[in-house]
Specification:
- The complex is a heterodimer of chains A (189) and B (247).
- Chain A has helices at residues 3-25, 35-44, 46-64, 72-87, 94-120, 126-137, 142-171, 174-179, 181-186.
- By secondary structure, chain A is mainly alpha-helical.
- Chain A is globular.
- The longest helix of chain A is centred in the last third of the chain and has 30 residues, at 142-171.
- In chain A, helix 6 (126-137) packs antiparallel against helix 7.
- Chain B is mainly alpha-helical and 247 residues long.
- Chain B has helices spanning 8-11, 15-30, 34-50, 55-77, 93-119, 122-132, 136-165, 174-179, 181-205, 224-246, and strands at 83-86, 89-92.
- Chain B has a two-stranded antiparallel ribbon.
- In chain B, helix 2 (15-30) runs antiparallel to helix 5, helix 2 (15-30) packs parallel to helix 10 and helix 6 (122-132) packs antiparallel against helix 7 (136-165).
- Classes of the chains: A mainly alpha (189), B mainly alpha (247).
- At the A-B interface, helix 1, helix 3, helix 6 and helix 7 of A face helix 2, helix 4, helix 5, helix 7 and helix 8 of B.
């Protein structure tokens, strides 16, 4: 592993963990815990994004309990889709970033609902579970309530995360983008 | 996270608490019903207290409490099937058993992982990895991230305060709060990227990505007790998984 990646990975992982907490403190119904994964993917490719996402999830487990580790699979899916988006200049404009974010949100939400239902019986992060409880009280079955809640939150979450990363990479000076050739392709430069 | 913990857990070889925590997680997932899960949670609490990191069990209650509440609501109260009266409440029998099992599983896993975090010493971990001749890069990744977290958190708080003092509204309507995401996250992300540049040069100049085996100055002692404990815990976890799959 070269020195630049060795420096990028801890920063990307810390971004995942810290921005997630920051958004929580702002009382937003979003996670934004994959910005570091998406950023690492755009700058250095999906393999680096997967590493950032998975190691971040393991360390998040160390700090908050290992029960959340299965959600590391979602980070893998996010990194893979962000990699495809980057190779197709998916971060070139606001519209393209949001569109790729929504697509990723569908995949992440679907996988998240399966993990939530099978491993956690529908009880995971407090915000999501509150929505599940309300939907259950409205008469929906547990699998439907879990899927609806996961999909809704993940669509919004990934759209905002892709939008943030796209805006950031487009605003970087050429000197910095030049050090990460994949980033130039992601924003169509 | 303590540099060198004086607690019993801090005197163990760095790999021992790591292996024990993973084994607790495996055993928790393999636990078939409320009695087994509750027994595992009880044993984990006792072990954590005996290792001198009992506070981790209390800290684990913070993320666990809302999960337990929702498990009870979703499965015991809103659950279907045979009903049973508990303290004047009519609860689903199967739902209650499921809620207790899942609550104890999560309790055991969260307590074990927070106890590991409380006793984790980054420097001893790097020395242990170096002594085995394993990749320095991977050890560096884990340790650098754990050390970066408090730094990034402090920076995030400073940015939050600075933007608030410039008039950014972090409360109010949902739209207001979504608008605040950019001004709060961008400075943090740009700062992180600038740091990547500096650290990249620093690591390059110290040959961090070199393949030469490193020599630890003070490698942690891997006692017979540590080795036996790790093997026993591993064997127990494998046996539990096999029993769950084959039964």
């Amino acid at each position: 592993m070269n020195a630049r990646l060795l420096a990028l990975l801890p920063a990307a992982i810390a971004i995942n963990l810290v921005i997630g907490g920051l958004v929580n403190a702002m009382g937003l119904p979003l996670y934004l815990d994959s910005i570091g994964t998406i950023l690492a993917t755009v700058l250095a490719g999906p393999a680096v994004g997967i590493l950032a996402g998975v190691i971040g999830q393991v360390l998040f487990g160390l700090i908050n309990g290992y029960q959340w580790i299965p959600f590391g699979l979602i980070q893998v899916v996010i990194a893979l889709l962000a990699g495809v988006a980057a190779s197709q200049a998916g971060f070139r404009s606001v519209g393209r970033s949001i569109a790729w974010g929504l697509l990723t949100g569908v995949a992440a939400g679907a996988l998240s609902s399966i993990i939530s239902y099978v491993l956690f019986k529908g009880v995971t992060a407090t915000g999501t579970t509150a929505v599940v409880t309300v939907l259950r009280q409205l008469g929906l079955s547990l699998p439907v309530a879990v899927t609806a809640s996961s999909l809704t939150l993940d669509l919004a979450d990934k759209a905002v995360a892709f939008l943030v990363v796209g805006s950031l990479v487009r605003s970087l000076p050429n000197r910095m983008v030049g050090r990460f050739p994949r980033a130039a392709r992601a924003i169509g430069r | 996270m303590t540099p060198v913990s004086r607690a019993a857990a801090g005197r163990l070889h760095p790999f021992t608490p790591l292996v024990l925590t993973v084994c607790v997680a495996v055993l928790a997932v393999a636990a078939p019903g409320p009695q087994t899960a509750a027994a595992l949670y009880g044993v984990t609490l006792l072990a954590v207290a005996a290792a001198g990191v009992g506070r981790a069990a209390l800290r684990a209650l913070v993320p666990l409490a809302p999960l337990w509440l929702f498990l009870f609501l979703l499965h015991a109260i809103l659950g279907e099937g045979d009903q049973v009266a508990v303290l004047g409440l009519s609860l689903s029998r199967d739902g209650l058993a499921l809620a207790v099992t899942q609550a104890c599983r999560l309790g055991a896993i969260a307590t074990a992982s927070l106890a590991l975090y409380a006793s984790f010493s980054p420097a001893r971990f790097v020395d242990a990895v170096a002594e085995r001749g394993w990749s320095f890069s991977w050890a560096y990744l884990v340790v650098a991230t754990l050390l970066a977290l408090p730094r990034f958190r402090a920076r995030a708080v400073a940015i939050l305060e600075a933007q608030r003092s410039r008039g950014l509204r972090l409360r109010g309507s949902l739209l207001n709060r979504v608008r605040a995401v950019g001004p709060v996250t961008f400075p943090l992300l740009l700062g992180a990227l600038a740091e990547v540049d500096e650290r990249g040069f620093a690591l390059e100049s110290r040959c961090a990505s070199g393949v030469t085996r490193r020599t630890p100055l003070d490698p942690p002692r891997d006692s017979l007790g540590d080795r036996v404990g790790r093997w026993l815990a591993g064997a127990l976890a494998v046996a539990a998984v096999l029993w769950r799959v084959l039964r």
